[in-house]
Amino acid sequence: MLPEIKLQGDVDVAALSPLLRGMILSASYADSQGGIGLTATGAMNRKFVHWAAVHFQWPDYTSEDLYSMNKVLNEGDMPPLWVVRSMLAHLKLLRKKKDLLLPTKRCREFLARPQAYFDLIATDYLYSYIHDGQTLEEVRERMRSWHVFLNLINIKARPGCSVNDLLSVLYPSLLSQPEAAMSAEVWTLGSELRYGVIRPLCWLGLLHEDRDGLTILQNGMYHKTPLWAACLQLESDIKGDILMH
Fold it and tell me: Which superkingdom, per the lineage (predicted)?
């Protein structure tokens, strides 16, 4: 059974969740500016992409980060926008009309009470959203393990944990030898865990990566945010451990 995501604590969700904040800002922009302009190919126009890069304050995707790699920004240069746009469309908050993305009636209800939508957004995004480079089969396969992933992170992230800390528990026999850490199989498993599990939790705002003093190639330590405890009640909160099956 998938762990239930149900917001109960008194937290500032928009401040903690990059995804919810990005959806609020995009919907508000569309509502106040007469829509979000689209290019001839249907991508969000550069005017909005620049605005989003400046205002989203998305970790690792600030305007400084993005412009350090690109002279101009298109929608394809800002991966968080792919998710924000997909979720806005999935929840029918924006609709396409000619060369614009326009707010729906539901969008205005969302803007009035965005926290009321968090449970739905988080559940759909975490458990069923198909990220770029993933397949529906991979998402469905991962659904069977979300209770393990969340309970394991719930325990290991109390003092902070790395991707390798989690891999050493999930695949103890594979990482039993020092040279295993450099193997292609371990790299692949680490990548799947980072982009299929850890990054969605960070983009939702349940985890935060501490990257102080690290280079772009180094991996940080992950810590739970106040939003984690506010919306997740897990077996390991009571038992203190989790069986790996």
Answer: Bacteria
With CA atoms as reference, report the closest residue to 122 among 58, 59, 193, 202. Answer: 202
Strand partners, 38: 44
Number of domains the chain contains = 2
| Digit-coded pLDDT (tens) for 46-71 | 999 999 999 999 998 999 999 999 99
In this prediction, what percent of the chain has a pLDDT beyond 70? 93
Averaged pLDDT, 101-118: 97
Tokens of 121: 């957004």
Does residue 178 share a domain with residue 222? Answer: yes
Nearest one of 121, 108, 122, 96 to 43, comparing CA atoms: 96
Q: Is residue 132 part of a domain?
A: no
Question: pTM of this prediction?
Answer: 0.92
Q: Write down the mean pLDDT value for the chain.
A: 91
CA distance 203 to 16: 9
Alpha helices in the chain (DSSP H): 13-16, 18-32, 46-55, 63-67, 79-90, 105-112, 118-128, 136-143, 146-156, 163-170, 184-193, 199-204, 226-231, 235-239
Instruction: Name the DSSP class of 2.
Output: P
Q: Round to whole Å and give the CA distance between 16 and 194.
A: 20
103 class by beta-carbon count within 10 Å (0-12 exposed, 13-18 middle, 19+ buried): buried
| Beta strands 221-224 and 207-210, pairing class | antiparallel
Domain ranges, residue 94:
13-125
| Paired strand residues for 44 | 38
Residue pointed to by tokens 């792919």? 82
Residue 245 has pLDDT above 50, yes or no: no
**Hey, is 244 helix, strand or coil?**
coil
CA 28 to chain centroid, in Å, comes to 20
